Amino acid sequence: MLHSHALSRRLGVDLFLKAEMLQRTGSFKLRGAYNKIVQLSAEEKARGVIAASAGNHAQGVAVAARLANTPSVVVMPHTAPDSKVAASRAYGADIILQGDHYHDAFVRAKELARERGLTLIPGFDDPDIVAGQGTIGIEILQDLPEFDEIVVPVGGGGLIAGTALAIKSLQPTVRVIGVQAAAVPSLVASLKAGRPVATTAGQTIADGIAVEQPGILPLEIIGTYVDDVVTVTEDQIRTAVAALLQRAKLLAEGAGATPLAAMIGGQVVRSGQRVVLVLSGGNIDLDLLAEIARTWAPFEG
Predict the structure, then answer these.
(1) Annotated catalytic residue 280
(2) What confidence category does residue 296 fall into, taking pLDDT thresholds of 50, 70 and 90?
(3) DSSP code at position 153
(4) In percent, how much of the chain has pLDDT > 70?
(5) pTM tops 0.85
(6) Which of 18, 29, 84, 168 is labelled catalytic?
(7) Which residues contact 29 (CB under 8 A, 6 or more apart)?
(8) Using CA atoms, how far apart are residues 168 and 175, in angstroms rounded to an integer?
(9) In terms of DSSP bridges, do strands 119-120 and 49-52 run parallel, antiparallel, or are they unpaired?
(10) What CATH number labels 2-24+128-295?
(11) 168 given a catalytic annotation
């Protein structure tokens, strides 16, 4: 947990940052993957595990599997950033590229799990995964027992479900806000429909949360424990990436910067309040980072 004086001053709040880009593998995803894999039987570990991912879950599964001495296969869409593909392979996973979106990769991963007898490690729709991600909420309350609001990125919903469940169970007065990229508003649509619905994935630099349909279990938890979900534009995400780098000296990927994007864009306004932003990861493509650094105006507030 880091406190940002510069961003607090510019946004008019007391701002704290849960910097998951400093986590091993550069994102929160190791938490859930490890919690799931470590509980497998010896026979399941011997056969191996498989996952579908646009990047961060892939790295979490690869590292968790290596720690458990378990072989791993990860199916990734062709659109996954090269840096995330390379990192997942370097951590020891066998990488298979399939389709252009997460859903394509997930369908193929399920097929391979049946064919090879592998254990599928879901990205978000699993109680052990949700529980693992919820350790973020516990850690935040250990470091900062009193705060007013927390803003969390949302893709498939595992991160916000676990975080909200932990925080609301221990501090029910804290408001929990989810943030999605406007290009892929699957949770917003699902909450409106009252069930998981698929949305067409548009182009977004927040590839880590570009999930076309949230999980059944996360959606149920979100409906109970999350107070609101907002969306942010690509321009706002880019501004937030630049602001975190310039003002907080933290490198966030697009998905990880969405909570700050919602503060900068005015979708989340809590003047004078103590606010926590979960910066979910920092595995940004270096070409994209260079383009943002070269062309994006500094955030002055």
Answers:
(1) yes
(2) confident
(3) E
(4) 98
(5) yes
(6) 29
(7) 56, 57, 59, 60, 61, 123, 281
(8) 8
(9) parallel
(10) 3.40.50.1100
(11) no
